[in-house]
Amino acid sequence: MRTLLIFAAIAFMTMTLSAQELKDHRWNDRVLMLYTDDLDNPEYKRQIRELKRDWQGVEDRRLVVYTILQEGYARGLPPEFWVRNASPRKLPATGFYLELVGLDGGTKLREEQYQPIADLWSLIDGMPIRRSELSKKGNPKRF
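^ thats the sequence. predicted structure below, dont judge the formating
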């Protein structure tokens, strides 16, 4: 019984930590979560390649990337420092989906397939806070 209680406490702390980690990004970073059944999933690999190709664009848009597997998650490109996940998610038939979370913490995009970098940047650059950031940099975009 004691072992069961310890396991439940660890699982609860892990779930809380992952929710807290996401909460810490609010108003600081945009978050792109890549859910995959396997690091060799073609859709996932294609998305990672696109993001790596424009690392400057990732940094400029204050985009933090997480890879989320059934058994855990990690931050970065490539993902490092895996954290065990206590609450696995069900994936679509493709075994991949992504979710973009804005600075306000709201979900801005949820797709079950790879998204071209130009489409992601267009979506982010059209967000009100991003438009304000660009305007302050002296680089206003017309939408």
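Residues 2-17 have pLDDT under 50 and may be disordered.
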